[in-house]
Amino acid sequence: MHGAAPQGGLLRTRTKALYSLGNVGNQLFRDAPMILLLYYLTSIVGIPPAIAGAAIFVPKVMIGALSDFTIGVVSDRNLHRFARRNWLLVGAALAPFAMIATFFVPNAQMSVQVGYVVVAFSFYMVTFASFSVPFLAHFSEISSDPQERTVLMAWKHAWTGAGLLLGSALVPWLIHELGADRGAYVTGAALLGGITAISLVTAWNAVRKVRVTVPLERDLSLRSLLSTLTFRPFRVLCLSAAAMTVAAGTCSAAMAFFITYNMGRSDALVQLGILVAIAGGVVMVVSPLWVALAKVLGKRNAYLVGALGHVITLIVWSNAGTGPIWVTYVCSACIGLFNSGWGLIALSLLTDAMAQARVETGRDTAGSFAAIWSIIEKAGIALGGTLVASSILAVGGFDSSAAKCGIAQSAEAVDAIRYAFGIVPAALMCIAALIIWRCVPARGGAALAH
């Protein structure tokens, strides 16, 4: 046992809120490269999109997958010696250095710049794994009640909105105000790293006295850890998450391009901040709505409402680039509303699967579940936000040299941006919704079908 509070009882609201606040840092590390890095490397540093995308994608997938799984396995195997929550302190110590290093690209030859990005971003992914995997796994351990885990996910998703406001609204505005040059991006990165550290320490402190039952079986074999992939409820969720995260990564990476070239805005970072602030504000307040909707409709149907609403909004928005600005703002609010729904329910189903596996096997492999989930999420976002988005731009003829000099792009390039921002992500989200519809029971929750 760790701590003093009963693991099976209800957690205090303060504990739920402060532990979930750790998701602010998680969201900042997730969004910074997705929203800013590709745009920064192509439009500010001047690296062609295909090369910049590859420099981000390789460490994000290869190093990210290796570090996620390593942290997951190590945290599972050492629960008796190193409490899972203590990994948050490790992440807090490394986060500021990793964030600053990623945007501190030297003014040198392109080969040197690309090599630097690969090394710095590899360190970034190791740091991200050190706290993101244990943070997610611990949600399934601090409460044994499925409904309370849904409430915990509501708190987590509410703090997602705060992370969006800070990382994707405030910091882009700050970068714009500081001149949108390399120094401005490094300053913004330093702020993001500091906020991440504070949020992780706060989360650790909130649960340091919460009692967690540690399973008697200590020597988890690699075979038993890999068996998480054979657990059907988890496998279904992973397939859906893969499609959804590729969609999210592609859309997010194309957003700054869409605002600049399809909407014709010279203040792209300011508008990006406004749009994300609107979406983030909505996410912060609508989480209770989705908790209630999941009670009435069941988790599966609530997920479908969120996913399909997101699809419709993306299609409308991607075809309204030159329309009135208020249409764009309304679309951003709808994205926040529907993103909150499918995101919250997906994570609630995930913690249900973790708890179900713990009951059926007698082993606590939540770290391995969280590691695999994190690998899929990061790889999906990387695939969408780098290779898919950059490939669509490259096929459309996007010219990074012209972008650096402020020269207009071709009509084909502008149309490619529209596909990357709305059409392709909408199609992928439909696939994710179909998987959930076909494979999760209508009242799916703690007892997902095998």
From TrEMBL:
<dbReference type="InterPro" id="IPR036259">
    <property type="entry name" value="MFS_trans_sf"/>
</dbReference>
<comment type="similarity">
    <text>Belongs to the sodium:galactoside symporter (TC 2.A.2) family.</text>
</comment>
<keyword id="KW-0472">Membrane</keyword>
<dbReference type="GO" id="GO:0005886">
    <property type="term" value="C:plasma membrane"/>
</dbReference>
<feature type="transmembrane region" description="Helical">
    <location>
        <begin position="187"/>
        <end position="207"/>
    </location>
</feature>
<feature type="transmembrane region" description="Helical">
    <location>
        <begin position="114"/>
        <end position="137"/>
    </location>
</feature>
<feature type="transmembrane region" description="Helical">
    <location>
        <begin position="416"/>
        <end position="437"/>
    </location>
</feature>
<keyword id="KW-1133">Transmembrane helix</keyword>
<feature type="transmembrane region" description="Helical">
    <location>
        <begin position="371"/>
        <end position="396"/>
    </location>
</feature>
<feature type="transmembrane region" description="Helical">
    <location>
        <begin position="272"/>
        <end position="294"/>
    </location>
</feature>
<feature type="transmembrane region" description="Helical">
    <location>
        <begin position="87"/>
        <end position="108"/>
    </location>
</feature>
<feature type="transmembrane region" description="Helical">
    <location>
        <begin position="326"/>
        <end position="350"/>
    </location>
</feature>
<feature type="transmembrane region" description="Helical">
    <location>
        <begin position="158"/>
        <end position="175"/>
    </location>
</feature>
<dbReference type="GO" id="GO:0015293">
    <property type="term" value="F:symporter activity"/>
</dbReference>
<dbReference type="Pfam" id="PF13347">
    <property type="entry name" value="MFS_2"/>
</dbReference>
<protein>
    <recommendedName>
        <fullName>Sugar transporter</fullName>
    </recommendedName>
</protein>
<keyword id="KW-0812">Transmembrane</keyword>
<dbReference type="GO" id="GO:0008643">
    <property type="term" value="P:carbohydrate transport"/>
</dbReference>
<feature type="transmembrane region" description="Helical">
    <location>
        <begin position="37"/>
        <end position="58"/>
    </location>
</feature>
<feature type="transmembrane region" description="Helical">
    <location>
        <begin position="301"/>
        <end position="320"/>
    </location>
</feature>
<feature type="transmembrane region" description="Helical">
    <location>
        <begin position="236"/>
        <end position="260"/>
    </location>
</feature>
<dbReference type="InterPro" id="IPR039672">
    <property type="entry name" value="MFS_2"/>
</dbReference>
